[in-house]
């Protein structure tokens, strides 16, 4: 009877250890997911900001080139040089205006 009780106690202890390990694994997975989501959101925000800045810069150049074309007598090469763009870009905009 003592042997059965000791065996039962060992089985209970093993069961608790197993349950503890399973809970630890679950908690670890949850923490990992949360950390991953935070990192992913931060990276996404940073990429979004960079993309927004690039679009803003392109829009700014577009407006600058249009104003140079409309308000000056500069040729395509001069406009391109001042705006820091290709001559083809200037030609395309000039054709659209």
How would you describe this structure in keywords?
mainly alpha, 97 residues
Task: Describe the protein.
This protein has 97 residues and is mostly helical. It has one domain (2-96). The protein has three helices and no strands. Helix 1 (2-71) packs antiparallel against helix 2 and helix 2 crosses helix 3 (87-96). The model has no long low-confidence stretch (mean pLDDT 90).
Amount of helix: over 70%
Biggest sheet features: none
Anisotropy-based shape: rod-shaped
- Average pLDDT level: 90
What class do helices, strands and sheet pairing give?
mainly alpha
Proportion of residues in extended strands: under 5%
Please tally the β strands and state the result. 0
Secondary-structure element order, N to C: HHH
Instruction: Report the end-to-end length measured between terminal Cα atoms.
Output: 100 Å
What is the CA-atom radius of gyration, in angstroms? 34 Å
Segments where pLDDT lies below 50 for 5+ residues?
none
Number of domains: 1
Helix count equals 3
Summarize the structure.
This protein has helices at 2-71, 76-83, 87-96. It is mainly α and 97 residues long. α2 (76-83) crosses α3 (87-96).
Can you lay out the helices and strands and say which pair or pack?
Layout: H1 2-71, H2 76-83, H3 87-96
Helix pairs in contact: 1-2, 2-3
């Amino acid at each position: 009877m003592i042997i059965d009780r000791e065996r039962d106690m060992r089985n209970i202890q093993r069961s608790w250890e197993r349950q503890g390990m399973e809970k630890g694994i679950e908690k670890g997975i949850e923490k990992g997911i949360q950390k991953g989501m935070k990192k992913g959101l931060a990276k996404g925000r940073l990429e979004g900001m960079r993309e927004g800045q690039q679009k803003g810069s392109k829009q700014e150049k577009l407006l600058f080139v249009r104003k140079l074309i409309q308000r000056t007598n500069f040729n395509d090469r001069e406009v391109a040089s001042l705006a820091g763009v290709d001559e083809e870009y200037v030609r395309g905009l000039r054709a659209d205006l």
